[in-house]
User: Fold these one by one.
Assistant:
Number 1:
Amino acid sequence: MSVLGLRGGVRVQLRYLLDREGLLGPLMLLPAIIYILALVGFPLVLAIAYSLSDVTAGDTSLDNFVGLDNFRGIIKRPEFRRALQNTILFVVVSQVLIIVLATTLAQILSQDFRGKAVVRFLIILPWAAPIALGTIAWLWLLDSEFSPIDLILRELHLLGPAGLLGRDAILGTDTNLVWLGRERLTMASVIMVHVWRLLPLSTVILLAALTTIPRDVLDQAEVDGAGFWRTLFQIKIPLILPIMGIAILFGMILTAGDMAVVFNLTRGGPVYYTQVLPTWSFFIGIEGGSLAQGAAVALFLLPLLLVVTILVLRLARRSEVT
Amino acid sequence: MASLKRRAKRIALYGAVAAFCFFAASPFLFMLITMFRQDRDLYRVGKNSLFFKLPPTLDNLRLLFFDTNYTTYLQNSFFIGVLVVVITLIIAIPAAYSLARLTGRWGEQAGILVFLVYLVPPTLLFIPLFQVVVKLGLNNTLWSLVLVYPTITIPFCTWLLMGFFKSIPRDLEEQAMVDGYSRIMAFLRVVMPLSLSGVIAVVVFTFALTLHEFIYALTFVSASDQRTISVGVPTELIRGDVFFWQSLLAAAVIVAIPVAIVYSFFLDRLVAGFTGGAVKG
């Protein structure tokens, strides 16, 4: 009897608790918070702890505190400088290209033309497809021997032994460019794949932003005689600037934190010409087994991340006000 | 004159559209063509072509489906995707409702924090999480991914769902509660049916995110029969320097295109989530 009574009591209490919204709210939020604290918060702290210790895959105890030795050691290595430079270079160059192309493309897509639905679908493809699989297509397109891109360039007489008008082809007389075998071309290839992959996302965000511009503002501009460029730079871009900022910041995080493109396209090679912090962190920490140094390398992304996060918050606040 | 100028503009517009479409979609077109080509057709040194010179073949698909682990990867990815969707819904729906309705100003701040978690890239966490997974004895099994993927999907889906719940008029629930429903019943009976489209969008994104994910799947799982599609295809079907190009491209495109089709239907909602509701798509 007493057991049943207790159960009834618990049930009544539970019901009472669930009716109090001050308690129900946090209660419903609790599982999400626990999940995030356990599997994002804790690992983040662990990453910092690792970077200050000498843990390896073989000896995972955290008892040996080494201070900033890992960071000092890493900074001295030439691969690090290259990986840091590459990460910054890839992020900056691809974001500049993406924002210029995305603004253009969003302008185009905001006009009316036939077959727009199909066009939209085709443009979205690179973002919607899993990136590791999309990169495989580029691996083939950039193949050292059978590259379809080289083939097209040869057909256009821009590459290969058969030049135009008796002159040598502009891109060289070899039959292939060997995209993934030469320093600058390989870097250009990585940037190209990043642009290819993120252009759809930025475009769709900017397109949504463009549609929020009130029609009468644009009509008034036309009445006042503002041309295409003036309308673009003095009206449209200032109005969508906060959202453009958000698109850029997301693009930066997705490029800086990504390792699928570089890993599948070049493995950071040839030599370490396309090594970036995420891939290098993987090669040192997981393949090399030096967890401490791998974690330290990845943590170099943290300052960038913090800056971006603060900017996102500011922009989000500003766009809410307007 | 005016009409000539307009026509020139029109042509420029279509030209630009075609150029962008080619840049975005041609890699998939090449994949679709190449997957049906014979070896003798594809590898002709110095004389290779973009299109079929010999009749198409299904041999590459046969190799892919019967002589590799491809179907295993498909099953694994599907299995992981479904479980992660379930976990995400169970945790994100109450959290989002709580943030939208029950926690007031305090909830607004918490909502932003949840979104910030989404900005933490897996690259920062994969090494410590790998150790967590090892300690739990889950390494080399797909359960490790079932456990970890919700860390990506819960923040994003909570944020998205919060937006949906906020867009439903409060009066509806309050009326239901006046009629004698408890808060939870009002939520289940009134809010949920109205949020169905949002929940479906969340299901699609969660599933897509699990298919897209690469770094955790690469790090936690090295047993071939436990691998996902995103990692299994590029690491296992490329053996040393021998590329089974047609099968490889087929493996990629067979997944990529259906995912892309479903995904594109829900894109506007995704954009609304990305811009933090600043743009209502």
Number 2:
Amino acid sequence: MSNETKIIVTIAEDGTISAETEGITGEVCIGELENLLQDIAEIESIKKTDDYYRESNITPTIKNENKITRK
Amino acid sequence: MSAIIKTLTPFLDISILKEAISECGYHFVQQANGIEIVELKGYRPTIFVADSRGRFTLTHDSHTRNIKEFLEKITSQYKIVYARKQEELRRLKEEEKRMAIEKENALVKQEQLSYEQKLREIQAQKQRAEEEMLKVEQEKKAYIESQKKAVYEKAKEMGYEVEEVKKANKIQLVLVKRK
């Protein structure tokens, strides 16, 4: 198993952002992305992949107190 | 990969936003703090307000209905208006070229004067369209830079190292945290 976790953030020409995690399993992956993007942009959609349903392999870096409201 | 998040299209240009609102059949009133949507009134007015980075976000109360549907329509129309403005500029540039050639080819002096007049009109229209698009592109560029900076800062705060990768028309930031 890889000893590093990654978040790949792509900023498109129109200013939209897409971000995906690599090496992070479990629900915590969404928490990491939400922590990163809260206050930066409004989230339109979240797609969960197989790794999301596995046991978490990291602890969240920052407790997400201000949960993002999804539109 | 365990999750992918996508964000909404940011509304960055006020004139495009106003056109998109009107073309979707809504009415707006320019207020000191933003653009109020007449048809969407809850306990508080529904207003597009510019944030510190130049993005217009919709503020509304939770009782206002049809916000999701409204935002979807405006997002879609905003992209259409932007594309139309780009297309109009492209058309004016071609028209300018064509008119210049026709003017050169005109044999009669009177015809040359007529083409010259048309050419001047097109050049003025093109200049206005160019200035408008330049403003839109500068707003976008500044916003993207501020997005990049905000991601860098937040990533560092979360303990990630950041590497920027150049991609065609996109910016890719790879955030890495070693266990």
Number 3:
Amino acid sequence: MLDNLILLTKVPVLNIQLLLDGLFIGAIFVLAAYGLALVWGVMNVKNLAQGEFVIMGGYFAWHLSTYGIHPILGMPIVCAIMFVFGWLLYITIIKWVITRDLFTSLLATFGIALVVQQALNLAYGPEVRTAASGFTTRSFFNGMVTIAEIKFVSFLLCIVLAAVVIIFMKRSRMGQAIRATAQDARAARVMGIDTERVYAFTYALNAAICGAAGVLISMIWVIQPFYGVVHSIRAFVIVTAAGLGNLPGVIIAGLGLGVAEQYSGFVLGAQFQQATVVGLLVVVLVWRQIQLSRHRQVVE
Amino acid sequence: MRSDQTPWWVYVLLLVGGIIAPLVFPAYTTQIAFLWLMILFALTWDLVGGQMGYNSLGNIFFFGAGMYISAVVQIGMFTDVGTYTSARGGEQLVLGYWDYFSSMFVGSIAAALGCVIFAIILGWVMFGLRGPYFAIGTLGIALSARELAGTWEWIGGGSGIAMPVYPGYPDEKSLVFYALIFVLAILTFICVRWLYSTRFALAINAIRDDEVKAEAMGIHTWRHKTFAWAVSAFFLGISGALFGNLTGFVEPLEVAFPTITFGIFMVVMSLLGGKGTLWGPVIGATVFHIVKEVTWTYLLGWQWVALGLLIIINVVFFQQGIMGWMQQKWPERFGVRVDKRMSKEAREGST
């Protein structure tokens, strides 16, 4: 462990490798976390199935690639499928939990997560898979830093996707309706917004964003039916650390988490990478609690 | 506070049933022992989740922690833990009756105390979190515990620890462990039932209904919350110790910290039976366990999908649970007098 730290200071180029890898993967985390923040903020549903949506999108992209459709070209198809899937989930399940207490939505989405991951396991088996993207890998600094072109492409795609979503939220009628509902659902209803439809659209949009993130994950990383839980936890860490409705915060926290994971994987060993995410979750929650307790009046 | 109005013959029936069940169905002794374990899980979860409103998704942490503590203590009494685990289960401890049971007793006590200490430390950290944050935080603790246990070489890492071999025959072993788990579940029930008849129950119910007001009324909320969690951890710790010895092998993912199975089962069972009631968890655990054992093998790989669907349906459409449903249907039998003029409001207030 200490050797690895010393190595990092002796060979500073390795830092560039870790930083870049962290940023490339962190950009995808940002997408999933943004979807979570959207659903959380608009309909107050804590979606524990977030990671499963990501993995599901990844599997669809992988499935399409076996028919010879390149994952990047398959992305719109995957998004469309996930959008419909999200809408259906809303009509059948989520609709009933919005008005209920928070633990209900948490458990219900946990049930969804369980069903999705087991269904994926039955359909595709427990093997770890990667969708072939056909890009090459380039090396810099005499081979000390290697960057797969696909990672860079996915980073650009992330930026494009995020920009599209943000412009959509700012400019379109539906985006405005979503933001109005998030501010005050009752007032929005009075103003003639069909909040029921807004909720359904928001949940479906979240599923589509996750699907897109999943397509990218399937190309630059690995997918497996049970890897969704970690993605869900990542999204929670990012949103909890950033706070709701704080888009710059989500971006910084997401990229930061990506970099932190790469560093912990390098310094502590790959088996600690997941433990780092979960550990960070606890740290972030405790840190939030300390922050909150400053505001809270405690009777002693 | 409404004291328990269960007729005495229910208890007699339950006790007699528990004693004769393994004699009538000797082939199912372990399954019935699991049923008692499930009842214990549901009861301890409901103490914190149902009665106090702190829905924990990570109570399984205490189960696994108790198992590991007892394993380390039991093996540490006879040999060096580090060298024993580095053999990767190549050699198991063979003990005589006296050594086996005395070490298991010491291990269980250590597990219980260790889990209480864990509960106090974790409570200090976690009980500032409210609602879903608490649920996610506790889930994080259970998940990180399994990751850490899997990488800690001294306690065997991912390949686990082999527990001492039971000195007698397998049939005798399952009967002995049946008796131990049965007694533990009964003790848990008695303890929980007693707790629910004291002021303590009023206090934690007040915390569930409105924590800020409870605090304003002079209830020391942190102390009550930690105590409730510690009670829950105490019994879960002992159950973990017994389960480790029954299985004979402690391993982080499937045995010690089965977050996705036992960890979720305890929540589902409490919700199914009706959370926040004394009998709800018992009924829920019984129904769930029997249905699961009967249908599990016929579902052929779809059992997990079925479990997920059960959670969804249970949570979304049947949240009051069996017990809550019965209380709504026949309120008089549960000692609730319904004033016809007030009944609608009262019903809305209670949900």
